[in-house]
Specification:
Helix content is 25%, strand content 42%. The chain has a single domain, classed as Nucleoside Triphosphate Pyrophosphohydrolase (Alpha-Beta Complex). The protein has 4 helices and 8 strands. Strands 1, 2, 3, 4, 5, 6, 7 and 8 form an 8-stranded mixed sheet that branches.
Length: 161
């Protein structure tokens, strides 16, 4: 049986030296993560990051650039996860937002507070994204081009032999 990598996104939002973090319960254990989740059909990666951020934290998120692309092999699930981490601005908090199942709360943490709790990070990609943010790694959103099937039909129709 062949395993297909899982495509995920994460929202990296920083305010006053603190990063938006969520506490979520995974198999009974309380872990720390960035607002993150899976890409859904018919959405761009940046749209997925915005959606996941709101669903998991109650914060609206506006991606400004890509911070990094990470791969990690989950040791117990035997699956490779590909994560696109988007940096941007969190604004317009909705305290009444219904958060995804398993999410306990959102909070703002310094890198030191996160790294002191390294044993509680959901996976190593959480720390790597904070590190890359601190290194000012950023790539333009324009590097992502959603290709619509209609575009290909138009190109084929207008092609000359």
């Amino acid at each position: 049986m062949q395993n297909t990598p899982e495509i995920t996104v994460a929202a990296i939002a920083e305010q006053n030296g603190r990063f938006l973090t969520i506490e979520e319960r995974i198999r009974g254990k309380l872990v720390l993560n960035q607002p993150a989740g899976h890409l859904e059909n018919h959405e761009t990666l940046a749209e997925a990051a915005s959606r996941e951020c709101f669903e998991e934290s109650g914060w609206q998120f506006e991606p400004s650039h890509l911070c990094g692309i990470y791969t990690w092999h989950h040791p117990t699930k035997n699956v490779t996860i590909v994560r696109f981490a988007f940096c941007g601005r969190a604004h317009s908090f909705d305290p009444n937002a219904k958060l995804d199942d398993g999410i306990e709360r959102s909070l703002w943490m310094t890198p030191g507070e996160l790294f002191e709790r390294a044993d509680r990070l959901r996976n190593p990609m959480v720390a790597q994204a904070i590190h890359d943010f601190a290194q000012d790694r950023n790539y333009p959103l324009e590097m992502f081009t959603p290709v619509e099937s209609q575009l290909m039909a138009n190109l084929a129709q207008n092609a000359t032999v």
